[in-house]
Target: Dihydrodipicolinate reductase N-terminal domain-containing protein
Amino acid sequence: MTTTTPTSATPSPRLRVALNGFGNQNKEMAKMLVERNDVEIVAVISNKSNVGKDFGEIIGFDTPYGVLVTGGSEASEVLKKTRPQVAMLSTLSTVGDIESQLRVCAENQVNVVTIAEELLFSWTSAPEKTQEMHDLFEKNNVSLIGSGFIDGACCDMTRTMAAMMHRIEKLEGGLQYNVDQYGKVLAIAHGVGLTEEEFYAPETGPGLTSPTSYPKSYVYNSNEWFAAALGLTVAKTEEVKSPTKASVELYSEAIDRTIPIGQCTGMTVTATTTTKEGVTIIGKQVGKCYEKDDEDWCAWNLEGNPGGVGFTMKAPPTPAMTNTAAISRMFQAVEAPAGYITTDKLPTMAGYVHKCLTERGSVE
Amino acid sequence: MTTTTPTSATPSPRLRVALNGFGNQNKEMAKMLVERNDVEIVAVISNKSNVGKDFGEIIGFDTPYGVLVTGGSEASEVLKKTRPQVAMLSTLSTVGDIESQLRVCAENQVNVVTIAEELLFSWTSAPEKTQEMHDLFEKNNVSLIGSGFIDGACCDMTRTMAAMMHRIEKLEGGLQYNVDQYGKVLAIAHGVGLTEEEFYAPETGPGLTSPTSYPKSYVYNSNEWFAAALGLTVAKTEEVKSPTKASVELYSEAIDRTIPIGQCTGMTVTATTTTKEGVTIIGKQVGKCYEKDDEDWCAWNLEGNPGGVGFTMKAPPTPAMTNTAAISRMFQAVEAPAGYITTDKLPTMAGYVHKCLTERGSVE
Model:
């Protein structure tokens, strides 16, 4: 949370942004951010590659942007020097996975928006680590916000729709996405390339669920988000996982090998939340390597009064909307209360305003 | 706009609501409002019938609610006596149609939420009358807000979705509704029961469009809303109307007669807005008497970066959502700035909160 308030007498300075992680997502994020009048990328941090190169050249600019990619070990130093107001953290999926990156940001008083899926609502899936991060960010007077496709296309859209309900009895919906678009770590977590036996193997099987199994699914987190947003008290959230299986031999880019017929291409998870108020929330995610004709979808329906309220997104551009949702939250992050702030506590995403774009053409 | 601020030490008092008009829409609205802990209906005003009867008995309660329906001529008197904070005005469609009802509310310092379709954004369709009403409400320190299905399901949902766009080039969408659900005045305005010749007849034909023809379509108003919400400058909005025709002989409840094959069952309107920024907005409304298999729909798509962002509502409960959207705005009305405030200037609809409902069962 910044302490300076821009006055109406002077134009708002551009938002100073760091990209923490420079893989598929943040490279696409960078292309969007450089087309905005209201944003300046001041730091790009990567653990993996391209360290020392100009980030503009990496994403295809003709001329350098003037910001070199910094290695992760120098993150603290570069944040101190460049003083970004917000870091877009796009690396791994859970609060534990990104803890060290979060610490560096918090300690340098940089607000964070992350697409780490668990951070949509990690209060119940990882309560201790979440409390620790909340305290750390609060102490440093900056905010930590989890966003992405589910925040925008599932949660925020459904919250807007839910505002047109008189009485909700049940919320049911979900999404499907192509795990091949999100890299190896996520594919392995989805059981891609396993046999059914391996999928359910004791100790190691990603298909096992129990009250204590961890990490939880994305829809576990979004169910808990919905309960908080609708003012409900969760009695229990349970999830069931089952493998999706190859009906044809299928090459997976994420694990870089061919999956034989019958082996796992990913998983379906159904998370069911019951509440003290009697409202049921059912979230379903299907994450798998796509066969011909598979495409992303997102659909949510509300039962109650009135009946028949729901919406469907057919073939939404899920990876791109992960970035655009996070960008919408980026502007809220600098105004949000300090600490870990779930987006059910924030206003709906900041609206699109055409005049924020530069006249410059797209880099794509 | 109220000037009192509830303190956290005392529970908020219930919102004092008047129903202005007691036809189909406000009767259903009443059923919902009496199930809320946070609302009290203090006045019901009707020009038509049921004057002197308890409104609870009219909507099917076993016991009287204790509020009698008041005739329109006594509206000012009853508002003075009961001091509602907001009136839900559900009578006719244009700012001119409801002017006298608006005056009575404003002069008694009652905020108004109306489902009169033009009021979604009447600044450009009826600029003089709108300015007059704006000044009147502002002077009396109360707000006037237009809401309904289009506000919620089209505008607010699409605004939430638009927040996930990086660059918008085109917004295209629309809705279909059954004119038989909204009474005779609306059906006649849609050309129900006319021949094609009558539909386009000079002077009187509802299908005629010109830069000065009035009233404009609902999508004319929603296009202008979108332009305002997205920070665009309208160059021009044009609309084209064409009749829908009976493919089978069809009884229309609204005009209480049978429409022969080939005659008009309603109309399709396409409104196209061009903007100085180069963004195009195309809204399409189909309002007609339904034949077998016809059903309501609402769908909006955005073109630009990313591509493929859109949503569809299949068979939404349009009349009920007209009420629930207006109820969501009702709470914003008492906090809104004084004057005529279009909802593009307001936050997204207030969220559903289960605890606002009473334990009492539904009256349906």
About this structure: Confidence is low (pLDDT under 50) at residues 1-9 of chain A.
